[in-house]
Specification:
The complex is a heterotetramer. Helices cover 9% and strands 33% of the residues of chain A. By secondary structure, chain A is mainly beta. In chain A, the strands form 2 sheets. A 4-stranded antiparallel beta sheet of chain A has the order 3-4-5-6, with no helix packed on it. In chain A, strands 1-2 form a two-stranded antiparallel sheet. Chain B is built from 26 helices and 49 strands. Chain B starts with 15 loop residues before the first strand and ends with a helix. In chain D, a hairpin with a 2-residue loop joins strand 5 and strand 6. By secondary structure, chain D is an alpha+beta fold. Classes of the chains: A mainly beta, B alpha+beta, C alpha/beta, D alpha+beta. At the A-D interface, strand 2 of A face strand 9 of D. Strand 29 of chain B pairs antiparallel with strand 16 of chain C. The complex binds flavin-adenine dinucleotide, nicotinamide-adenine-dinucleotide (NAD), flavin mononucleotide and zinc ion (ZN). The site of nicotinamide-adenine-dinucleotide (NAD) has 32 residues of chain B, from helix 5, strand 11 and strand 14.
């Protein structure tokens, strides 16, 4: 069970959250061609490693926020707010290398 | 010595001799003491053969004294039914306990199933893959199925209660042996809050039986002092009879707590979920058996277990035993055994060189020592009588004994460590796998870490099998896997440890290989010329010990399985004779009265002829406010939003980004910057979250906020020719006449009794219809008030089924019923609205794809049945011999008003097929129907607008 | 499907003969050859699909210069960890045709491969918990019937007769359901091993413990792969790596509409026969049946987030067990022994992705999600055809990647909607 | 009104209170807090009206003195120029007061939040999942909590609390054997 650190409420159980998939996906305008639109609709980063994704604290404060989580270890490196761009984990200081032994 | 318990020592042990506990085994009565386990009590009574093995029905006896037990898995009844596969070594002896052998017929002493043992050669590992192919597997399956299964489901209802508990701690210490106690003490002294969890009925681990002192203290003294200090510390909680069974992500662990179990209808099992800052695994180590001929005979037991029976339970597992061992530590155990009254006839150590001190100590006690000897085969039919040994000088010798203590060394209990994602390392000096590293916040201490001994005091020889018939050397006792099975697996190239596991099923039984995995991979290593470290282990997974399914479910059963809401006027509906059903998480009146069909029909007629009162409270209501509210909603709806005037409502359709219809409903402009979005009942929460997701994630620049307000309001929908008159009579009601309050209007106000209300004129039934909202705490009162006014005018309560029928007559869409996961806005007749919308909206771009624009898509149509019966779910078909589905019936209603059966459906090219007669297929029956406009009743909407 | 000449050797007679010889004469089930530098076809992933493709290439198309390259042990992916449900009760004709072809191949598989895969057609019983759900199920059952596949709508009483332990009046009362009697289970490992044995006998090289790390692509055409054992040249390459499809396709510069999630399964202690069919409840999200060894095999919804961890989380497990106990109260005293997970490759419309890719001579068989076990025989057959002819087999013509651009999705979830 | 009492926990209905749900634009949260003296994150503060933090952009205002209309008016006055929406939510929620030594354990049966005194001292407020449904929980005093859920769940949550506390009593009696 994941324990996710809501930036507003603190750490809570996975069951309180909904998962929104990849973050920072650009929505193309209506003028996009079919391939570009299909890419936006269906193709997602699906890395084995750090995934930038968004979650909503649905049973808590109702806020969406971003999470950088490793899909192999489930380790959460960073939680950041919706309006922040995709971070560079190497350079950010507040990256939490949680439990890294 | 106790006459009733011939193998009970005269004194010693931690049992309560003053309390006799009666129990039965296979129908016969026996006695034991409080503090016994079922296993120790059976042994005290001299019961050797407790069960028959799974595949070959060989006699088996108690093999261990803990959770690693592979044999003593019995049916046990302590007042909650005969529970199969209960571990006798963990089961506390309780008065009135009934135990049964499960896998034998007619009795455990004589079992016909033994035929499989005598024909053992025919049933090697994976035999079923090679045969039973002709004519097919099912021909044989029924018979095989009957022989499988370790026990049978208990009969009767389950009278135990189950619950969940969540908890948090700074440090979770798993295991209360010396290592765990020390870890708990240290943490407690630092002031951390500690949860110390022990699966046994008392704390102590090997302190309870191992006489070796700890830091100069006798084991008992250390234990008492430690417990005293821990019990006095306010930040320490100690849980007994509680097994940590799962180690999940982010240091969440689960505990199966049986401390209040086994008490008939007062039993409670608790399933804990612990969130631990740090975890200390002090889970000890499991002694491993050695492989030799007939090493599964009753009477053969792990050496440490024999010591535990002797010292903790005062039970002799044999009167004159042999010991078969491969390490120095076991010498200590065996000598301690002798000191505890178990006569040790001889020690057979497979190693060539042993410290003279050990031999001297043993010989001083009169023990015959065979150094560098090889155990060959145990003798005996239902219990061990002798052991044949090849001595170091090449001779064979027969050691007479009634028990054999085996020790193949210890193997750390690393299950939880592995579950946590930890990686293991093979430690050659200890011939076992020890924890290496793990990304979660945990420490491993004590025997679990491999710290049971210094290597120089251990000198273990890697385990191997004996040079005798490998079909008689057991590796996995539960699944009856022998060394020869492993050989076969290697011969056939199942050489990956994972293939061997699956091919032979080693380690896949309920004990998950606690005494077999290490031996199996040692054999594999030997057969493939590898080191065990190269072979590796299979994966440990939850559960560490089998957990009752009921405990995992907790009290989330019956009415608590899925929470359902009650309507504000629930009691009123009950009084009206409502029959309730669950719709989208609400208990709602399906209809009123006894007969489903008749009631629905009658309610429909009443609504059309006079008026109906329907509870629409579950409809979603979301307020959307802000200067950009209109722009936001314009993105969310297919429909145009800006042109809507304040106080007016508009019907709208919402799509997902793939163009598929998600929801429909009416939205109201309360004021320039303030809207009220009505959603369907089933989608209320989903749409509220959908709007928030777009608002927060995609359109944060828009100045808009949303409030989900549905729970505040009870909604009484009053519709029908008499509706206006009835509602107008409510004192304080706004003017409802058609000029001041036409169709699709909204107003709010306050009744004379100060109850605020909102009213909107929208219709799902096709009648003149008003949705009146009052605060939900006034719901019941207002339903009654409206009824009082309306009853003389023919007002009747209307259930949801009638409403769903009424809307069919109007051809109004029911999203999710008349649409499926592929229906787009164009398929439901929104082509014109889409074409007219000038701005972007969610799903718009998808509708431009060629696929979405195809005219042969399945479109929403109406139909009238011409011939036969049609039910929802029937298909429109073409073709005679080979049929092809052209779509399906989504809704049907035998309309009393129209006097015919009508329906809606999705039909290929549906918009172009008006007037066509089509075949309708249902369960091999055919009917015919004519395609018509999907509005059957009052097509011009005069009643609705009138 | 023709019989493979070399595939004899497993029978009652041979078992008896070998027993007399102490089982010392059994041949290897498959060879473990060295990886060569060059193959006509390289298949990545020795799951059921990869192995079945290789088998059919060799058997039906005479292409046996084939390597199946597997990063772990063969069957270590989802084929070796699934809940074995085999059925063809699909809604859309394209799916039904494909999956029924697969079921028919399953029906003859033990004989064709001379290996008992233990196909047990005890029925797949889908439950409806409300009046309206039953209408939806009737729609589904009729579609199946029109597709020429068996399905029978059942009343609650029929269901009680088939599964007496089901609680008809649970919190989700059972209003009815439908059954495909030809549906059932078979033994997952046996299927993988049977194909491996057959492919190996036909000359296919199965290379285990060797990971494909990248592709050699020249002029938009694949010419080989890079592996942990070195470079391998190949005329044609097929990816059959299930949960790892995105990662591997990425190495060829492709983006695919797949997310990888952990789908869990779990087993109870083995008990005497108590469940006959596999029951499946789309609205409670659980399915369960009893294996021939006696364990109750339980599955349900996937963990909600992307994962490659191959282990299941707690919420989904609890959800599945609570649902099971609600449906079968008499299982409450049974115990759970093990819980595991596989990484499933989920597509937006839950239909697989099969066929060609934008890279020439690179083929894909993926997106099997929660339901590709039942597709193994047909997947092997049709992909082998596709690779041999560089043209999609008619049965899978609609399963290509193009559908995501055109919008021609085949959404089975709309009709079925549960992981199985 | 006492709804239920087991040996270790008493459940009482919280009656006669007004609740207003206030939402503001996220960017204006700080200003709002200042103007209305609202509770900070994860807090419940104030006399009457008191404010319960629901999230960075939302509060419940509760009062036993003022009507919803009065509270809403007050918000409108003080939040002039700030995008906000204050709605009467009094009927939407049902509140219970849980008191006694078993109260914390009762909550712990249904929620993973750490309700121990040191971690969730009086004045703390959280929104969480309790027995699968959304709940707002306030620590009122030692061994006393307030729980607010949607009023439609009244029957469900009462039955659940009753059943759960009965099991707890059964478990602790059994242990005393
Ligand atoms: C718990 C669970 C239950 C399921 N239940 C059912 C069910 O009841 N019925 C059903 O029909 N389906 C079911 N499925 C789905 C089914 O198991 C899969 O769809 C199917 O097995 C996929 O087969 P495959 O051969 O494509 O993939 P896999 O069997 O996963 O094989 C892919 C192989 O590729 C290997 N690989 C990956 N990357 C590389 C690389 N770079 N180099 C070399 N090798 C690589 C992997 O190690 C793996 O062995 C279930 C799945 C799970 C997880
Ligand atoms: N002779 C033997 O059989 C034997 C076995 C193991 C350890 N030892 C000795 O014990 C000493 C080490 O003590 P230790 O504390 O490391 O081990 P220990 O065996 O004394 O204690 C481990 C404790 O952990 C408990 N436990 C294990 N898994 C658990 C789980 N999942 N949930 C709850 N409880 C669990 C066990 O019931 C046991 O009480 C060493 O001196 C070693 O030589 C002897
Ligand atoms: C249908 C099926 C039945 C299984 N039955 C058992 C079982 O009875 N005992 C057991 O230990 N594991 C059983 N397993 C689980 C395997 O041990 C193993 O966990 C699974 O194949 C995944 O592999 P892994 O755990 O090594 O990753 C079963 C797996 C499947 C797919
Ligand atoms: Zn939050």
């Amino acid at each position: 069970m994941l324990r996710i650190d809501c930036p507003y409420c603190g750490t809570r159980d996975e069951a309180e959250f909904t998962f929104g998939g990849e973050s920072h996906v650009e929505r193309p305008g209506p003028e996009a061609g079919d391939p570009e639109w299909a890419d936006y609709l269906f193709n997602r980063d699906n890395p084995k490693g750090v995934h930038f994704e968004h979650w909503c604290h649905a049973f808590g404060c109702g806020q969406w926020f971003n999470v950088a989580r490793d899909t192999l270890t489930h380790e959460i490196h960073l939680v950041y707010k919706m309006d922040e761009g995709r971070p560079d984990l190497e350079t950010r200081e507040d990256t939490e290398r949680r439990h890294s032994a | 010595m106790n006459a009733g318990q011939p193998f009970r020592r005269a004194d010693g042990g931690r049992i309560d001799r003053s309390t006799l506990v009666m129990f039965t085994f296979n129908g016969r009565s026996y006695e034991g003491h409080a503090g016994d386990t079922l296993a120790s009590a059976l042994l005290a009574n001299g019961i050797r053969t407790v069960t028959r093995s799974f595949k070959f029905h060989r006699p088996r006896g108690i093999f261990s004294a803990g959770f690693e037990e592979p044999n003593g898995l019995l049916g046990v009844d302590v007042g909650s039914g005969m529970i199969p596969i209960t571990c006798a070594t963990l089961m506390p002896l309780i008065a009135g306990l009934r135990a049964e052998t499960q896998n034998s017929f007619p009795s455990v002493k004589f079992d016909f199933g033994r035929i499989f043992d005598y024909t053992r050669l025919l049933w090697p590992a994976g035999f079923y893959n090679k045969i039973f192919k002709w004519p097919n597997w099912r021909t044989f399956e029924w018979a095989i199925r009957r022989t499988a299964g370790l026990g049978a489901l208990p009969k009767g209802a389950d009278n135990s209660r189950y619950r969940h508990l969540n908890t948090h701690c700074d440090v979770l210490v798993v295991g209360a042996g010396s290592a765990g106690l020390n870890a708990a003490l240290e943490a407690a002294r630092r002031g951390e809050d500690v949860l110390l969890v022990e699966q046994d009925i008392e704390a102590g681990g090997s302190l309870l039986f191992d006489p070796t002192g700890i830091k100069g203290q006798a084991p008992g003294e250390f234990l008492d002092a430690a417990l005293k200090e821990l019990r006095a510390a306010p930040s320490v909680r100690i849980m007994l009879q509680s097994t940590v069974v799962g180690y999940y992500d982010h240091n969440v662990l689960t505990i199966h707590d049986r401390s209040a179990a086994y008490r008939g209808d007062a039993s409670v099992e608790t399933y804990w979920k612990v969130r631990a800052g740090r975890v200390v695994l002090a889970t000890g180590a499991i002694e491993q058996p050695l492989m030799f001929g007939n090493n599964d005979l009753p009477g053969i037991m792990l050496a440490g277990a024999m010591l535990q029976y002797a010292n903790r339970y005062a039970v002799l597992a044999g009167r004159r035993i042999a010991a078969v061992i491969n390490n120095d530590l076991a010498w200590r155990t065996v000598i301690a055994l002798q000191d505890s009254g178990v006569e040790v006839a001889s020690i057979v150590d497979v190693r060539g060189k042993i410290s003279a001190d050990l031999v001297a100590a043993a010989e001083a006690r009169g023990i015959d020592c065979h150094v560098g000897a090889t155990p060959l085969k145990a003798r005996g039919s239902r219990t061990v009588r002798a052991l044949r040994v090849a001595t170091s000088d090449g001779k064979t010798e027969l050691v007479q004994c009634d028990g054999i203590a085996v020790s193949g060394g210890l193997n750390p209990t690393v299950h939880l460590f592995s579950q946590a994602g930890g990686k293991l390392r093979y430690d050659e000096s200890r011939a076992c796998f020890v924890p290496d590293h793990c990304a979660q916040a945990l420490d491993v201490v004590g025997a679990a870490k491999g710290d049971f001994v210094m290597p120089e005091n251990y000198r273990i020889l890697p385990r191997t099998f004996a040079p005798v018939d490998t079909t008689t050397q057991w590796v996995d006792y539960v699944h009856d896997v022998t060394v020869s099975d492993l050989e076969l697996s290697v011969r056939e190239n199942f050489v990956s440890v994972e293939h061997m596991k699956r091919y032979t099923t080693t380690g896949m039984a309920v004990d998950q290989g606690k005494t077999s995995n290490l031996n199996a991979l040692s054999v594999l290593a030997r057969l493939t010329d590898q080191l065990p470290g190269q072979v590796g282990t299979t994966t440990f997974r939850p559960q560490f010990m089998p957990v009752t399914l009921g405990a995992v479910a907790g009290n989330r059963r019956g009415e608590f399985y899925a929470p359902a809401r009650q309507l504000p006027a629930h009691n009123w509906h009950v009084q009206q004779g409502a029959v309730f059903d669950e719709y989208g998480g609400w208990k709602r009146p399906a209809f009123y009265g006894a007969d489903r069909r008749a009631s629905i029909r009658e309610e429909v007629l009443k609504m059309r002829q006079a008026a109906g009162l329907f509870d629409g409270s579950p409809l979603g209501k979301i307020e959307v406010k802000g200067p950009d509210a209109a722009e936001f909603l314009s993105m969310m709806y297919v429909n145009t939003v800006h042109t809507l005037e304040a106080g007016k409502a508009r019907y709208g359709l919402m799509l997902n980004e793939n163009g598929v219809v998600m929801d429909d409903g009416v939205f109201v402009r309360l004021a320039g910057d303030h809207f009220l979005v009505n959603t369907t009942s089933g989608a209320a929460t989903r749409i509220a979250m959908w709007l928030e997701e777009w608002r927060q994630c995609e359109f944060p620049r828009l100045q808009v906020i949303t409030n989900e307000v549905a729970a505040q309001w009870a909604v009484a929908t009053v519709a029908g020719p008499q509706a206006r008159g009835i509602l107008q009579s409510l004192p304080g009601m706004v003017d409802l006449d058609n000029e001041s309050f036409p169709h699709m209007s909204f107003a709010s106000g306050c009744f004379e009794d100060d109850v605020p209300f909102r009213i909107q004129r929208v219709s799902y039934s096709g009648e003149c219809s008003f949705e009146l909202s009052v605060p939900s705490n006034h719901g019941e009162e207002y339903f009654q008030r409206i009824m009082d006014i309306g009853e003389p005018n023919g007002l009747a309560p209307i259930g949801i089924e009638a409403i769903l029928a009424l809307r069919i007559e109007k051809g109004f869409l029911h999203v999710g019923v008349d649409t499926d996961g592929m229906t787009n806005a164009l398929d439901v007749g929104f082509g014109g609205i889409v074409a007219n919308k000038k701005t972007d909206f969610v799903g718009a771009r998808s509708l431009q794809r060629a696929e979405d624009q195809r005219t042969d898509r399945r479109r929403l149509i109406g139909f009238e049945v011409e011939n036969g019966t049609v039910l929802a779910g029937a298909h429109f078909v073409s073709g005679k011999r080979i049929r092809r589905s052209e779509g399906f019936v989504t809704s049907v209603f035998e309309s009393p008003v129209l006097g015919k059966t009508i329906g809606l459906g999705l039909l290929e090219r549906g918009f172009d097929r008006k007037g066509e007669t089509i075949e309708v297929f249902d369960d091999d029956r055919l009917a015919t129907a004519r395609v018509v406009n999907p509005c059957f009743y009052d097509p011009d909407g005069e009643r609705m607008r009138g | 499907m023709g019989h493979t000449p070399k595939l004899r050797g497993y029978s009652f007679l041979s078992l008896a003969k070998n027993a007399l010889a102490g089982h010392r004469r059994w041949p290897v089930a498959w060879r473990s050859p060295e990886l060569r530098k060059n193959y006509d076809v390289v298949i990545i992933g020795a799951g059921g699909h990869g192995l079945a493709i290789a088998y059919h290439l060799a058997l039906d198309h005479g292409i046996s210069d084939v390597a199946v390259i597997e990063k772990g042990y063969l069957g270590s992916g989802n084929s070796g960890r699934n809940t074995q449900v085999t059925r063809s009760n699909y809604f859309w004709p394209q799916s039904a045709r494909f999956f029924d072809h697969s079921l028919k191949l399953y029906e003859g598989l033990s004989q064709a491969l001379n290996f008992n895969v233990m196909l047990s057609q005890r029925g797949i019983l889908t439950l409806a918990h409300s009046h309206h759900e039953l209408e939806g199920m009737r729609r589904w059952a009729n579609a199946i019937r029109i597709n020429g596949i068996d399905s029978e709508v059942l009343s609650p009483m029929d269901i009680k007769r088939i599964e007496p332990l089901l609680n008809l009046d649970s919190c989700y009362p059972i209003h009815g359901g439908f059954i495909q009697w030809r549906g059932g289970i078979s033994r997952h490992d046996a299927v993988v091993w049977a194909y491996a044995r057959a492919a190996s006998a036909l000359g296919v090289d199965i290379i285990q413990q060797c990971e494909v790390k990248g592709f050699n692509i020249s002029d938009g055409r694949v010419i080989g792969v890079e592996t942990t054992h070195g470079q391998v040249a190949a005329d044609r390459v097929c990816m059959a790596v299930a949960g790892h499809t995105s990662v591997l396709a990425g190495k060829a510069g492709l983006r695919v509409p797949i997310t990888s999630q952990a789908l869990q399964a779990m087993v109870s202690e083995p008990v005497k026969p108590c469940l006959r069919t596999t029951i499946l409840s789309p609205s409670i999200h659980v399915y369960a049946g009893q294996s021939d060894r006696g364990e109750i095999v339980i599955g349900g919804c996937a963990d909600i987030y992307n994962s490659y961890a191959q282990r299941g989380g707690l919420p989904a497990m609890e959800e599945n067990i609570a649902a099971l106990v609600e449906l079968y109260p008499s299982l409450s005293r049974l115990r759970l022994t093990r819980q595991w997970a596989g990484i499933v490759d989920i597509t937006p419309d839950t239909t697989p992705i099969m066929g060609k890719t934008p890279v020439r001579n690179l083929y894909i068989s993926g997106g099997w999600g929660t339901g590709g076990y039942k597709a193994i025989p047909a997947g092997g057959d049709t992909m082998a055809y596709t690779i041999a002819n560089d043209d999609p087999h008619p049965l899978i013509a609609d399963f290509g990647l193009e559908r995501f651009v055109s919008g021609a999705m085949i959404d089975e979830a709309a009709a079925s909607g549960v992981a199985h | 009104m006492v709804e239920q009492a087991s040996r270790d926990v008493t459940i009482e209905l919280i009656e006669d209170r007004t609740i207003v749900m206030l939402k503001v634009a996220l960017g204006a949260a700080d200003k709002t807090v200042r103007r209305l003296a609202l509770a900070g994150p994860s807090q419940a503060v104030g006399g009457d009206p008191r404010s319960l933090w629901r999230g960075p952009d939302s509060w419940f205002l509760m009062s036993s003195k003022y009507s919803g209309a009065v509270l809403i008016k007050d918000c409108e006055r003080k939040l002039d120029g700030i995008l906000h929406n204050a709605v009467d939510y009094s009927a939407a929620l049902i509140g219970f007061s849980l008191s006694g030594p078993g109260a914390e354990e009762l909550l712990a049966s249904g929620s993973g939040v750490d309700f121990r005194f040191e971690r969730f001292p009086p004045g703390s407020c959280c929104r969480t999942q309790l027995a699968q449904i959304g709940a707002t929980i306030v620590a009122a005093a030692k061994d006393r909590f307030e729980v607010f859920v949607e009023s439609g769940f009244r029957r469900y949550i009462l039955d659940w609390m009753n059943d759960t506390s009965n099991i707890a009593v059964l478990a602790s009696t059994a242990q005393e054997h």
